[in-house]
Specification:
By secondary structure, the chain is α/β, with parallel strands linked by helices. The protein has twelve helices and ten strands.
């Protein structure tokens, strides 16, 4: 799985060997072993070694580690412990400013240099999950060329603002919009949407993921294996979407060859923006092996 093609990120606590043993085999594009919220304070140091051992094992999905926040007493030791050739990415939570993110990048680069790792080979994904972080999203997204994408954390975001995080998720619309604008302006991959806490409510997960996709998000954070296939399906173009996009491109290219740049297809007006959107659908389908006709 390419680091540029990730739909599902599945969290697992770094201090639960039984869960770690299973998490790499459930079909997630990427697994995030956690050193932050899922690990008690008195277990954080010992958990680092467990996480590294898991990352060094044979695995199919990409392997990420969520370290503790930049301003915590654990951050530098977390980074030193987990960074190595075995790692695909680091997730840094509660990023609120470009300075914080640049500090994390600088530390990672120093570690890479000391350990003779290829510069930039380890992805660094910030989670934006506070009011300050959302308001500074433009600066965070553009803070460093190393950053490919950002993620959204609604749990801490709604806590920070005292919002009621109800199933309709209207209170998340502003944050989602800010993040999609910020990442587009910075030229990043689409952002990664927040978790859904209702583990056994498939419809709630699909509804939340659908809202994220509507706002231009390209994937989602998952907290339970049952959410992974739902996530992968929703963020992969369906057969119907691929068929419709292919029909748009074919019809428009035929019209364009005869000198027309706008047509009607099945009652819909088609011009360049609509065709470009259709081509994006086909490119995305091709990334996930779904038969898109336009190469990525």
């Amino acid at each position: 799985m390419s680091q540029g093609a990730i739909r599902s990120y599945l969290f697992a606590p770094g201090n639960h060997p039984k869960k770690i043993a299973k998490v790499f085999g459930v079909g997630a594009d990427a697994v995030i072993l956690d050193l932050e919220d899922a690990v008690a304070v008195d277990e954080k140091e010992a958990t680092r070694a467990l996480v590294v051992a898991a990352m060094q094992s044979e695995r199919a999905p990409l392997g990420y580690v969520r370290v503790n926040p930049v301003d915590s007493i654990y951050f530098e030791a977390d980074m030193e412990a987990v960074t190595g050739a075995w790692l695909d990415g680091i997730v840094v939570p509660k990023i609120e400013s470009a300075d914080q993110l640049q500090s994390a990048v600088a530390l990672l680069q120093r570690i890479e240099e000391r350990r003779e790792l290829e510069p930039g080979s380890i992805d660094l994904m910030p989670i934006i999950e506070t009011a300050r972080g959302i308001e500074n999203a433009n600066e965070v997204a553009a803070a460093h060329s190393r950053v490919r994408r950002v993620a959204f954390g609604a749990g801490d975001y709604t806590l920070d603002l005292g919002y009621q995080w109800d199933p309709e998720e209207e209170v998340l619309s502003y944050a989602r919009s800010r993040l999609s604008h910020a990442t587009r302006l910075a030229g990043l991959e689409p952002p990664v949407d927040t978790v859904v806490l209702q583990i056994y409510d498939d419809q709630q997960f699909l509804a939340s993921a659908g809202r994220g996709r509507m706002f231009g998000f390209g994937g989602k954070l998952c907290i339970h294996p049952r959410q992974v296939p739902l996530c992968n399906e929703l963020f992969t173009p369906s057969a119907k979407e691929i068929e419709e996009a292919s029909a748009v491109v074919r019809a428009f290219e035929a019209a364009e060859a005869s000198g027309s740049a706008s047509i009607q297809l099945d009652g819909y007006f088609i011009d360049y923006p609509i065709v470009d959107k259709a081509r994006r659908v086909l490119q995305l389908a091709a990334r996930y092996g779904q038969g898109g006709t336009v190469a990525d």
